[in-house]
Write a structure and sequence with these properties.
This protein is of the alpha/beta class. The protein has helices at residues 14-25, 68-79, 106-116, 139-154, 216-221, 237-253, and strands spanning 2-6, 29-35, 54-58, 61-64, 87-94, 121-126, 161-167, 175-177, 182-185, 189-193, 199-203, 207-210, 225-231.
């Protein structure tokens, strides 16, 4: 079986090397197509306003001067069109992608793109914000990635669903199926002045978490690995019937627009 491996931290990240080793240990032939530099928080961005450059760096390795979504799209539609991958694995990201992080994450976006193109996909992230200056340790996350990949192989994944996997710091105490928690980023924008007297702004990264039982945020905080199934259909079905009723009433009672 073939696996496409990508990320948003760039081709030189130790996380992508760990994920490639995990995929190989699970029995995959790996093909790497990744950004040439860090592309964190690019979300599901596709580059449409300029040409993309692709450079082959190894027998089954390429770098792209674009986003993670670009990488997966180019890989499946062009680079690997004659050897279509069976899975897309994205990560292992340097830092968690919990709760509402998934709407910003390039790591998760790469898995979204794979899923959109009909390839089962899994995103992996490591909560490693406190490394003590020694650099991130991906050894436990690599073991978790192999275990989760083998789990995905045990039966077909649901159609149009990707898995978002978050690994806590240290040695995890277990793995739990979770739902998305709520993580709201604070209104932290720093304004300063450059040497030429022009103002510039830096968006801050502080956040406020809402913990609840069964959420990915709470699970990782408790030292367990969270695996959250994410669906491509973002329709709010609980509100759909109410909206339809409102529109029907509006058309029935409103002025004649003919």
């Amino acid at each position: 079986m073939r696996a496409l491996v990508s990320n948003d931290d760039g081709i030189h990240s130790p996380g992508i090397e760990a994920l490639e080793r995990a995929a190989k240990a699970a029995g995959f032939e790996t093909w790497v197509v990744a950004p040439d530099r860090e592309q964190s928080a690019t979300s599901h961005a596709l580059t449409l306003t300029r040409p993309l450059r692709v450079v082959k760096t190894g027998e089954r390795s390429w770098v792209v001067d674009g986003t993670p979504t670009d990488c997966v799209n180019l890989a499946i539609c062009r680079i690997l069109k004659d050897v279509r991958p069976d899975f897309v694995f994205s990560g292992i990201n340097l830092g968690p992608n919990l709760g509402d992080d998934v709407t910003y994450s390039g790591t998760v976006a790469a898995a979204f793109e794979g899923t959109l193109l009909g390839v089962p996909s899994i995103a992996f992230s490591l909560d490693c914000r406190k490394d003590g200056g020694a650099g991130p340790d991906f050894s436990e996350a690599e073991k978790v990635a192999e275990e989760v990949i083998r789990l995905a192989l045990s039966r077909p994944m649901a159609e149009d669903v990707l898995w978002n996997v978050n690994v806590p710091e240290g040695r995890p105490t277990g793995i739990r199926a979770t739902r998305m928690g709520r993580r709201r980023y604070g209104e932290s924008v720093v304004e300063k002045v450059d040497p030429r007297g022009r103002p510039y702004y830096w968006i801050g990264g502080s956040h406020v978490d809402t913990h609840s039982d069964g959420s990915d945020l709470t699970t990782v905080a408790e030292g367990l690995v969270s695996v959250t199934p994410l669906h491509l259909d973002l329709t709010a079905y609980r509100s759909l019937e109410d909206l339809a009723a409102r529109l029907a009433g509006s058309r029935a009672n409103g002025p004649d627009r003919s």
